[in-house]
Automatic annotation (TrEMBL):
Keywords, comma-separated and alphabetical: Phosphoprotein
Residue ranges occupied by any EAL domain in the UniProt entry: 23-277
Protein name: Response regulator receiver modulated diguanylate cyclase/phosphodiesterase with PAS/PAC sensor
GO molecular function: cyclic-guanylate-specific phosphodiesterase activity
Domain of life (superkingdom): Bacteria
The species this protein was found in: Sulfuritortus calidifontis
GO biological process: cellular response to nitric oxide; phosphorelay signal transduction system; regulation of DNA-templated transcription
Amino acid sequence: TKDKGRDGYHFFLHDLNTHLNGRMTMETDLRRGLQREEFEVFYQPQYEVASRRIIGMEALVRWRHPERGMVSPGEFIPIAEDTGLITPLSEQVLQHVCRQTRLWHEMGLPRVSVAVNLSANQIEQPEFVERFMATLLAHRVPVSAIGIEITESMLMRDLEGTIGKLKQLSKLGIEISIDDFGTGYSSLSYLNRLPIDTIKIDKSFVHDIRPSNNGTSIVAGIAAMTRGLNLNLIAEGVETEAQFEYLERIGCHACQGYYLSHPLDASTATRVLGAQAL
Ligand code: C2E
Ligand code: CA
Ligand code: CA
Ligand code: CA
């Protein structure tokens, strides 16, 4: 009936309002969080399979929210991207990473490269490459110490523009990884056109590993392909010994995941690196 329809409409409006208010609160909250520097960086070690040693770290942002406690990026990165706040947020993340890296170098800890996640909005900023490099320079961090992770979906938005910037960064010595490989619009043709050093195979493929399928799996196929293209392969989301051993058998270069280490706060990461120095 008519009344029922009206109620439905009101329900809809009510939901929409709650949704919009939620978004607005989050945006205001994000701005305040940026001003008060509530964002922190955690570091997840990447282990070379052959040596079982840490060769890199992935920088993963966390929000130490005054009321909500630790908030994970899945909750705020999408809103930061929609509102353009991803650019100042990424700048804070890179500053944290540079400061930390500089500190590790000064402490004489083993040199590992730290990879930061880029977003499409960020790389599309006109002065992106200049600002990125200026931050490294300001902290006296060598280019060999910092890497970037991009996703296939970032390439979809502006392939030519993105390729141009990645080439500039690569020429300057920044290592480039393709993140979540195989989940986006994977076109093998772009692999040849991009200055990529490493492929990070998505955790969904790692979780699909059945160790009994001796060497036949998507992961094994990607491993063979990266060898052919002379690229490094990192597996992410490695959660079990069986997955790790399988990845070792198929010649995967490095692994990252809960089986080896969760993302660590800066002081724990420092301790773990220090222990490796012994
Ligand atoms: P990602 O780049 O694919 O990062 C890997 C995610 O997998 C991280 O989630 C990490 O904590 C989680 N992970 C690590 N090992 C395992 C495992 O063994 N099993 C499972 N199931 N998960 C594992 P996190 O930290 O919540 O980050 C989520 C996403 O947020 C990231 O996915 C990345 O896309 C984005 N992100 C994180 N930090 C930043 C940042 O500083 N800038 C930008 N633009 N995006 C970021
Ligand atoms: Ca990543
Ligand atoms: Ca990933
Ligand atoms: Ca992901």
